[in-house]
Specification:
The chain is of the alpha+beta class and about 425 residues long. The chain has one domain: Nucleoside Triphosphate Pyrophosphohydrolase (Alpha-Beta Complex), CATH 3.90.79. It is built from 13 helices and 18 strands. The strands form 5 sheets. Strands 2, 10, 11, 12, 13, 15, 16 and 18 form an 8-stranded mixed beta sheet that branches. A 4-stranded mixed beta sheet has the order 5-4-7-6. A two-stranded antiparallel sheet has the order 1-3. It is globular. The protein starts with a strand and ends in a 9-residue tail after the last helix.
């Protein structure tokens, strides 16, 4: 008996342990399914003779499990190998630091906020931006003389970011890296920014505008994000977790798996709850009405640290550039609520074995894979002794190591005084 490989199998419940994973629509329902797979009738626990496959397929979506097109295959022997792959940046000693200082204090030291590849320094120098100074002895690129808003006292960084992006685009010649020119890289909306993470609150207020997303990979700035693991536990099926699949229209990680709600923590977010709520509204619906109260009861889960290298899965133009990052995870336990996707996304049930298999086959957004693995370890869903012992050490926030460059790494929940509640 042949059945199309889509969410029909999820409807029939052929897996013992299950996760909900989002799927994108496959197109008109009259189209022939792209792939078919053989299963035996014994694979399914119960099928009534009068079941109509056509009716089951109607108004449903497929869940893509093939590797992304035009990319190399990401396969791993075990989860330790996966975690190490998301920490693959290797310091060579030729890198530069991107630095800022408090312009209101003449004795303020230069603080490192990013890791710049030696090749990038050459092109940034050619851009001839009035805001950048190059100290060859200390290997520092310094942002100099930024204007200060006389009303708020904050540094007006956006003037510098715009000029740097424009100056890079003016560079001419052959063999230009894609990130130099506007037409060969992905451009975000003008004011979309990442925060500049620093331990001292006064410094954070000074640079509260953050840095444009267009420049984050070029200067190797620490990326930040908050992820929400939505799960339930039943006697029959154990742990079940709601997970999403990113649309193919996404500029980065198209078609890969993700948490039910996950997104970048930006300078505009006053609390982590605000960050998660924004992503939740954009990506899914069906949460319990009192989900905020449940979130506030969530345990303080340690922030995850990683140091990746961007590749073809990221937005175009930035392959090969460093990405240090921290991610804050929260758990939300629900009951019978059915989380539904938005913007073309749907959700499907997957089992623990299936989720592990999808991790090992590189089906996850890299940093979201770390969050998923962390969830599985914390809830005792990983049996391998080596994985249980090694992975927490690899994911642990390391304030001493600080990526080898003195870049501040902090618990994201410490970045705001009241990470979930706000100032109430």
């Amino acid at each position: 008996m042949e059945l199309p490989t889509n969410s029909l199998l999820g409807k029939l419940g052929w897996q013992q342990n299950v996760f909900f994973v989002a799927a994108r629509p496959e197109g008109p329902l009259t189209q022939e399914p792209k792939r078919r797979t053989k299963i035996t009738i014994s694979t399914l626990p119960f099928i009534k003779a009068q079941i109509s496959l056509d009716s089951l397929l109607q108004n449903d979506s497929t869940f893509e499990t093939d590797p992304m097109p035009n990319t190399k295959s990401y396969r791993y022997e075990n989860l330790v190998e996966l975690v190490k792959d998301v920490n693959r940046f290797q310091i060579k000693g030729t890198e530069w630091k991107f630095c800022l200082k408090d312009p209101t204090n003449p004795t303020s030291p230069w603080k490192a906020f990013g890791i710049v590849l030696e090749e990038n320094v050459k092109w940034l120098k050619k851009a001839n931006s009035k805001w950048l100074d190059f100290d060859w002895l200390s290997k520092q690129i310094r942002l100099i003389n930024p204007p200060i808003d006389p009303t708020t006292g904050t540094i007006q960084l956006n003037y510098a970011w715009k000029e740097i992006v424009d100056k890079l685009d003016e560079i001419t010649g052959d063999n230009l890296p894609q990130w130099v020119k506007k037409d060969t890289k992905w451009l975000y909306n003008d004011q979309e920014s990442w925060p500049l993470i620093e331990e001292h609150e006064n410094f954070r207020k000074l640079f509260s505008e953050g840095i444009w997303c267009d420049l984050v990979p070029i200067f190797g700035i620490l990326t930040t994000g908050a992820h929400l693991n939505v799960y339930r536990i039943t006697k029959e099926k154990g742990f079940q977790v709601w997970v999403s699949q990113r649309p193919d229209t996404q500029p980065n990680f198209p078609g890969l798996l993700d948490q039910a709600a996950a997104g970048g923590f930006t300078p505009s977010h006053k609390t982590i709850l605000e960050c998660i709520e924004k992503e939740k509204k954009q990506e899914s619906k069906g949460y319990p009405r009192h989900w905020r109260e449940l979130m506030r009861q969530s345990p303080d889960i340690p922030t995850i640290q990683f140091f990746d290298v961007r590749d073809e899965r990221w937005e175009k133009g930035y392959a090969g550039l460093p990405e240090p990052g921290i991610r804050k995870a929260y758990d939300l336990r629900v009951n019978d609520e059915k989380i539904k996707g938005k913007e073309g996304q749907t959700f499907k049930l997957m089992g623990i074995d299936e989720i592990r298999e999808s991790l090992l086959h590189g089906r996850w957004k890299p940093n979201s894979a770390l969050v998923m693995i962390d969830f599985m370890i914390r809830h005792g869903l990983i049996e391998n002794k080596i994985e249980k012992a090694e992975i927490p050490r690899l994911l642990k926030l390391d304030r001493e190591r600080q990526f080898g460059f003195g870049i501040a790494v902090i618990e994201l929940s410490d970045y705001v005084q009241f990470p979930l509640h706000g100032n109430k």
